[in-house]
Amino acid sequence: MKIRYLILFPLLFILLIVINLQLEPGLSPQQQLGLIFTPEAAQTFPAVFYLYGQLPRLCMALLAGATLGLTGSLMQQLTQNNLTSPMTLGTSSGAWLALVILSVSFSELSADYAVPVATAGALLAFAFVILITGSRNITGLPLIVSGMVVNILLGAIATAVITLNSQFAQNIFMWGAGDLTQDGWQNVTDVMPRLLPVLFILLFAPRILMVLRLGHQGAQARGLSVLPVFLLFMVLSAWLVSVVISTAGMIGFIGLLAPNLVRIAGARTALQELIFSVIAGAFLLLFADTLALALGQLMQTVIPTGVMTAAIGAPALIVFSRRRFTAQDQMTIILKPVISPRFLPHAISVVVLLLFAGLMTTIFFQQSETGFLWGGPEPFRWSLRWPRLLSAATAGVALALAGTLLQRLIYNPLASPDILGVSSGATVALILISVLTGNMIQTSLWGAALTGSALVLGLLLLLGRRHQFAPATLILTGIALTAGLEAFVQFFLAQGALSNYRILLWLSGSTYRVSGEQSVLFASVIAGLTVIILALSRRLTLISIGRTFAQARGLHTGRTALLMLILVALLCALVTATVGPLAFTGLIAPHMAALCGAQKVKSQLIFAGLAGAVLMIWADWLGQTLIWPSQIAAGTLVSVLGGSYFLGLMLVSRFRK
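The structure corresponding to this sequence follows.
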């Protein structure tokens, strides 16, 4: 497109401001304009709300959107990666976790030190991502996938902090959902001096960014010190992102969308991209805020702006990733066995021993005020403990089997039901049913959970066919789908009811509310599905070798693959409906089996199932005892463990190359 299309952004921008100001009835445009010049004339509620509520919110949307658009453009030009943004680099989650810890543990310091603390968290998260991917991979998908997994990992830690401090939960919900509501001009006047680095970037970055387009070696040949410049502008970007998050909360996707839209519209030079990204960012956030206000009025509720940006941005991320990358843009993750297959029986024996130790520890070790006690549990305690134990082990087996099936079906060692968004589909379906019926989430709604999982899985496979299910692109698509679905969840968490805090506890993945009858039924159904999957192991073996090979042996690969995917969706739905969403178990357990020499399908299924049970049993016990009498949900501990494993796997793979 020609550059003249960039002129559309300012024109649409002005039109959107006019529409935004007309959303609140009670004042004509002439009255609104008059109040700006004569604020003392505000004597009615509509006039006061306009001056001290609507106008400050408009200004905050413009400032936050422009800042996020600029930082997104700067990050993308520095890394030469069109999918780079504060969200995809993990800096947003780093800042968010730092602010959550500051608010909960040092609330009296929040007002004065929020931005520096958030900046430190953002920089640490980004440094972690760079450590994993290496400086040579900042232009590819490994940087994006690492950043998104860091988001999941830090988000799980933040969720654990929030659930352990319920008195702060509601304010943090609204903050985390991205709330632009203002009660005066104080926040606007406070934030403006903190955004002065924007001027420095606009003055000095364009020429440097143009030189960087020659590549790092070309830039160094022209006398540019690449590393100091890169670090300087990343620090400035982290500062600006932290200013926005500490003021307006978590607002994602603006920094990703704005620069891409500007490039599509015709921006060519670094200066053009920076300036028009400022305008496009302000426009996008104002558009999302206007849409949130309009829908909120229609639905008679409050829709946080950050939720709306996620609902709009997640599909856009999928579109840009499909346009930008091809099937060759892959991360190579090779799972080489560290134990010879001939020692597989010994490895299985060790896992069985760990499983037995976990069972004995859960049954006989009791935490009390004086420490650990050894002995049989009291009848009342045992009636509460055995359903949790059975549910945890069953959930671990189910997700391990689902992960093994999914990895072999799409020839992708990074596939996992939670990373790809399959579990999120079940989560949203259950919350939707809960909201529509007015009841708490029920562990018996397996049909609703299955429908949600199946829909997401089908959409994911439909989108992944274009890139032949390339590992990195499939994961990126799954994470984008998850982000869009989680926008729906954030909307209900921000509403303020006690039941919504209970939803957060359920989202943490805990076995605390599973009854004895439910756990027995859950285990029975999973046992039946396990028998079916093991009976299909020969078919899965043929498909694992290749579709053509399987068809040559007389196997109808289409029907078999569909049956396997239905089993995956069913396993995920049952687990999510019973204990809540559990992250990374479906990734870790199959990898443990492969690394321990379980190369054949049946042996991998058995080993992975045992490993999944071990992970969940120990996570559930540790969650009950680490900070007794408080508890940490097993899903939170598994998320931290699994996220660390995923990132460690990428780190090891980088050094193997």
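The two ends are 40 Å apart (CA to CA).
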